[in-house]
Amino acid sequence: MPTLKIDGQEIQVEKGTTILQAAQRLGIRIPTFCYHPGLSIAANCRMCLVEVAKSPKPMPACHAQCADGMEVFTNTQKVQETQKAILEFILLNHPVDCPICDQAGECVLQDNYADYSLSPSRLFTKKVHKAKAKPLGPKIILDAERCILCTRCVRFGDEITKTGELRVMSRGEHSEITTFPGKTLDNPYSLNVVDICPVGALTSIDFRFKRRVWFMSATRSVCTECARGCNIRIDSFQNKIERYVPNYNPKVNQWWICDSGRMSHTRWTANRVTEPRNTRTESSKTAISTRDVADEMAKALVTSGKASAFVLDASMPNEDAFVALRLARAVGSRLYLGGRAQNGPQDELLRLADRNANRTGISAIAGPSPLPGLAEFQKDVASGAFKTVLFIGGEHEGPDKWAKLLEKVSVIGVLADIRSDLVDIAHIVIPAAVPQMREGTVVNSHGRVQRIRQAIRLEPAGVVFPYWRILKRIATTAGLEATWNSERAIFGEIVASMPQFAEMTYDKLGDLGLPLGSNGLSDVDVDAATRNIDPSAPQYRKTNINSRMPWQH
Amino acid sequence: MAATVRPVQRKEFKFRESSYLPEVLRGLAITTRQFWRNLVGQRDIVTLQYPEVKKRYPNRFRGRHRLMLRDDGQVRCVACMLCSTACPANCIHIVAAEHTNTSIEKFPQKFEIDLLVCIYCGFCEEACPCDAIRMDSGRHSLPTFSRSPQNIGKIDLMEIGSLSIAKQGGKNA
């Protein structure tokens, strides 16, 4: 266990710890570009050079390991001069086109220049020009001039996805990042290079010029695209989701997220169900409300009694599932667990074949006997057992023609967030909130309970509601007692009745979540996890969307 | 913070003031004197004969915004949104888009300023890194019968624009 001194503060670290990691532990900031905790150490940007006593030259803190009796200085005049020289060198041919650069505002080069240099350029010749706005693949654009050659993207391709599309070509000031001839950067995780690029060299075509980053509000949440439950940051502006960015969670997704998960926000914004519909009764009212159709649904369920069925969505949060199970059992309905396909793309890194976010959670809440799936539902419904069917969630993997299968059912109701074939043929459509508009918890395939948080307000207001609110309305109209008033209250009841969730609260779940059956005890060293966040990643303000006024974003 | 209360002593009206008549006559005398002075002398009249005569504005009057132009007449703005960031009234709305010319890259597809919301502070002009927006036209925003014409767009802003002497892209570009 080497003991060393950094800026006069003594610290004891495990063998093999680098100076940078030791300094992080003491809360001393050392600027970096090429260092990323999830990648191998390249030590090529030289931004983290520090002075070590008895060493003739400054050493790179990200690479140099701590030794016993070492004395490190991170803020001497020599170090400051070195940092200025390095920044001047990196900025020599940098175009400084921050006004048109998407990275501006979350750019490590901007931050480090502002904190460690602020010297004007001394170059009096023309800058070297390289390719601008060159597409590397269908999702990513390269601006070779802005690149500082930290090789984070090259290492990501080599070490994480093991696809190795990128290399540094040419030498000296003509060096630039490129793909191998005839190859494109197109793998299921390629957009991660946009996040890890410390400057604006690699930008996402989807987000290009869409929004300045400082206008957006950040909300920590969980991706609902597959059963992995990757932690994400939802960036939104004026109640519109602009992008998903991965958040570090050592037990789930590390620093990464797959491209389909990252792009899934477009799915939620493009196909929303925003108005109630009831095709069964010719209403004299010109406009029907969500409450009207919910009441209609309640009547149909009560009339059908045992001849009714609930098809749950395997992506719905625990809170909704809990309320739905209570309601279905009180009415006497049969319960099925539906949801999206379970044969999606799968690989060793993150993606899982089950495209539903909360199958584990719903199974845990449903009790010891597993809920029958959609195959059983198809068989039962074809036999004409049901007069009323209520689907929760718009997306269910089903037959090519739902209409043919459900022709004997007299009332088809859907609590729908997303438009689908099923929603088109349903008699009663009740619009529901998308996951980004509500609070809740989901359990990933490894049994980790994590919070999804509200990033945008319910819109259209007064028309869409979270599933549990609509289910509560149905229960009240059906003459049942339903007293829940918030997701927190429902989760409290789940915790009280399910031993696997024992001792959990929303606050204890926090940012990193808890495993099922953990009795509220975290299995993550939060300090270590905080240190493992990419040190150059920008820190965003968290926002409470309910405290925002309508004219704010 | 506790408010401090300071009692103000009002001047009591004497008989002369409270009977009103002498004061009314005094006021009439002032009006009559000014009437004759204007009719005969016509020297120190405050009123201007608008629109034949217009008052000169102070040199620091800004007036309406204008968008400067590139050498080929295109808009100089690169849609960096620094003006809308600096704007304390949130009246500048820009939608950026990809330009077909790769050397320009980003340009404002939509550039709208809501003149009814604008407070004419000039922060947008100061924030602009490209000398693309200026507030030196010295023109008013004209009165309209509805709100929408006051939300002026790129075309209107460029109409009174002109060329800049600053080099686009900076010195070493």
Summarize the structure.
The complex is a heterodimer of chains A (553) and B (173). Helices cover 26% and strands 17% of the residues of chain A.
Number of domains of chain A: 3
Radius of gyration of chain B: 26 Å
Helix-strand makeup class of chain A:
alpha+beta
The pair of chains with the biggest contact is:
A-B, 22 and 20 residues
Q: How many strands, which pairing sense, and closed or not: the largest β-sheet of chain B?
A: 3 strands, antiparallel
Mean pLDDT over the full residue set of chain A: 91
- String of helices and strands of chain B: HHEHEEHEEH
CATH topology of the largest domain in chain B: Alpha-Beta Plaits
**Helical content of chain B, roughly?**
10-25%
Mean pLDDT of chain B: 89
DSSP, total strands of chain A: 22
Using only C-alpha atoms, the radius of gyration of chain A works out to 27 Å
Percent helix of chain A, as a range, is 25-40%
Strand content of chain B: 5-15%
Termini separation of chain A: 50 Å
Write down how many β-strands of chain B occur, each being a DSSP E stretch of 2 or more residues: 5
* Strand order in space, largest sheet of chain B: 2-3-5
Individual helix count of chain B: 5
Named at the architecture level, the CATH assignment of the largest domain in chain A is 3-Layer(aba) Sandwich
Structural class of chain B: alpha+beta
